[in-house]
């Protein structure tokens, strides 16, 4: 049974229906994602993925004969609404776990509520602050921004790049990744010789990119950011004819980025991404290939739209949660939490998850694939 409420203002009748739906099923999963608003290109596929997976699992008999009741809210990317919905999911809908937090801001709001209530929460956002320091009930599926920096700097090392410019978004994701990159860049013998920022609402980054272009010795440019900002940076980069490698973050690892930036401008851009974007290029025997190809086929058949990294984060969160419920043999939140933390070698679309009490991400750098855009499509660098 699925109860979906994808509006930011919820009528009383719909709330009552959600409560009735939740009450009729033993296993109640809550979700708050940004299906509309500035992060809709992330949250919309997340919402569609969760609905599809719940429908499919229930059609197969649910878990031990019990159907899943999904109570899904759209927070529109608003951290205050995410906090409100998290409270509603716990106090009114009485869910046993929560998936969501499309952005870092909404995730931080949800986790504060979930931790207080001791309800397992699996975030879909990238910032390392979500799981570092470790919080007892909070986990997440995307790689951290620190890991993205490390993967990028590894690739730069291989290309003998020693001096770079950075242009970062000032939103939560961009600021967090900028800080993480600065913390680890010295480990790779790379120097930041130009450091610029932009507001996510800016429509032109030519001034900042010109400063970077003129910086002495700059050999490549890194853009920590997500949303529309990186696509504007990429277009401006092409317009300024900057003949240097351009790296983007995992926050724009989707076909939507190529479309917004334009295939010509995006040509040659590199970023760390997931196996999902290059499913057909994975070798036979790759542990992720079966789950990646199955999800890609199901999502594209169901939605008639290309699969993307962000829906994959929701896929993995649902996989982790349902796997934990089966192994726990219980829907008690504490038992689910313990089972998630004991997850070992679970192959998802983003990587192979193995959690510990000290690690609530469960992925290492091998889960990232370095990708390059060629001819308007994704290719594997390695």
From TrEMBL:
Domain of life per record: Bacteria
Family: Belongs to the leucine-binding protein family.
Protein name (record): ABC transporter substrate-binding protein
Domain Leucine-binding protein: residue ranges: 26-362
Pfam families in the record: Peripla_BP_6
Signal peptide start-end: 1-25
Keywords of the record: Amino-acid transport, Signal, Transport
Gene3D superfamilies: 3.40.50.2300
InterPro entries registered for this protein in UniProt: BCAA_transport, Leu-bd, Leu_Ile_Val-bd, Peripla_BP_I
């Amino acid at each position: 049974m699925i109860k979906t409420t994808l509006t930011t203002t919820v009528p009383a009748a719909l709330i009552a229906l959600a409560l009735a739906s939740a009450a009729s099923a033993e296993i109640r999963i809550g979700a708050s994602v940004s299906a509309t608003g500035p992060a809709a290109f992330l949250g919309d596929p997340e919402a569609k993925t969760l609905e599809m997976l719940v429908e499919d699992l229930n059609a197969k008999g649910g878990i031990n004969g019990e159907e899943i009741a999904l109570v899904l809210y759209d927070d529109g990317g608003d951290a205050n609404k995410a906090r409100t919905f998290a409270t509603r999911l716990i106090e009114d809908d009485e869910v046993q776990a929560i998936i969501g937090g499309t952005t870092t801001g909404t995730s931080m709001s949800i986790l504060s509520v979930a931790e207080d209530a001791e309800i397992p929460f699996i975030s879909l956002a990238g910032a390392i602050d979500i799981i570092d320091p470790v919080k007892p009930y909070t986990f997440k599926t995307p790689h951290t921004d620190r890991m993205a920096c490390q993967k990028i700097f590894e690739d730069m090392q291989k290309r003998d790049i020693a001096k770079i410019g950075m242009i970062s978004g000032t939103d939560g994701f961009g600021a967090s990744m900028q800080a993480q990159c600065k913390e680890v860049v010295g480990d790779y013998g790379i120097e930041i010789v130009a450091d610029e920022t932009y507001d996510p609402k800016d429509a032109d980054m030519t001034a900042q990119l010109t400063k970077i272009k003129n910086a002495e010795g700059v050999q490549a440019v890194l853009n920590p950011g997500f949303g529309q900002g990186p696509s504007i940076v990429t277009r401006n980069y092409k317009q300024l004819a900057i003949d240097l490698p351009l790296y983007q973050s995992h926050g724009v690892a989707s076909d939507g980025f190529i479309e917004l930036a334009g295939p010509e401008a995006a040509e040659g851009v590199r970023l760390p991404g997931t196996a999902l974007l290059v499913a057909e290029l994975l070798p036979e025997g790759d542990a992720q290939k079966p789950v990646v190809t199955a999800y890609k086929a199901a999502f594209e058949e169901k939605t008639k739209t290309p699969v993307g990294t962000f829906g994959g984060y929701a896929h993995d969160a649902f996989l982790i949660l349902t796997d934990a419920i089966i192994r726990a043999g219980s829907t008690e939140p504490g038992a689910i939490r313990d089972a998630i933390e004991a997850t070992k070698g679970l192959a998802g679309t983003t990587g192979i998850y193995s959690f510990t009490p000290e690690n609530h991400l469960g992925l290492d750098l091998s889960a990232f694939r370095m990708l390059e855009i060629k001819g308007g499509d994704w290719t594997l660098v390695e």
